[in-house]
Design brief:
Elements: H1 3-28, H2 33-40, H3 44-52, H4 59-69, H5 81-86, H6 89-103, H7 106-124
C-alpha cells in the first residue's frame, strides 16, 4: 500500500469513527436525525452522511454538534485511531507545553520564545 493510500485509509477510519460517535451522542440525547438536522440547519441526508462517515465533518460542524448534543468536542474522537496516536507521551507533553505557553502574558511569551530559539541554536551548533 502506498504511503498516501495509508494516510487516506487512516483519515477515513477517523471520519467513520467520528460519525459513529455522532450517532451515539444523538441517540443518547434521544434525538432523531431529523431533529438534529433541523437544529443544525442541515438536511436529514447530510446528517446521515456524517453519521456513516461518508462525508467529513468540519471543525465548525463538530463544535455545533457538540453544543447541540451537550458533549465536549473531544468526545467525538475518544477511542479513535487519532486518539491512539495522541496517547504518545511526547504528544501529551507538547500539548501541555503549548497550553502553558499560551497562558503566559504576551511579553513573557516573546521572552520565552527568544530563549527557546537561542537554546535550539546552541544545540544545533554542537
Amino acid at each position: 500500500m502506498s504511503r498516501s493510500a495509508s494516510l487516506k485509509d487512516r483519515l477515513k477510519a477517523i471520519d467513520t469513527h467520528v460519525g459513529k460517535r455522532l450517532r451515539t451522542a444523538r441517540n443518547l440525547a434521544g434525538m432523531s436525525q431529523e431533529k438534529l438536522a433541523e437544529l443544525s440547519e442541515l438536511t436529514f441526508q447530510q446528517v446521515q452522511k456524517y453519521e456513516k462517515g461518508s462525508n467529513r465533518i468540519a471543525a465548525s460542524g463538530l463544535s455545533l454538534f457538540a453544543r447541540i448534543l451537550n458533549v465536549p468536542v473531544v468526545w467525538f474522537f475518544e477511542g479513535s485511531p487519532a486518539a491512539a496516536e495522541a496517547d504518545d507521551p511526547h504528544s501529551r507533553e507538547t500539548i501541555a507545553m503549548i497550553r502553558a505557553f499560551h497562558r503566559l502574558p504576551a511579553k513573557k511569551r516573546r521572552i520565552f520564545y527568544l530563549f527557546l530559539k537561542a537554546l535550539v541554536a546552541t544545540e544545533e551548533s554542537k
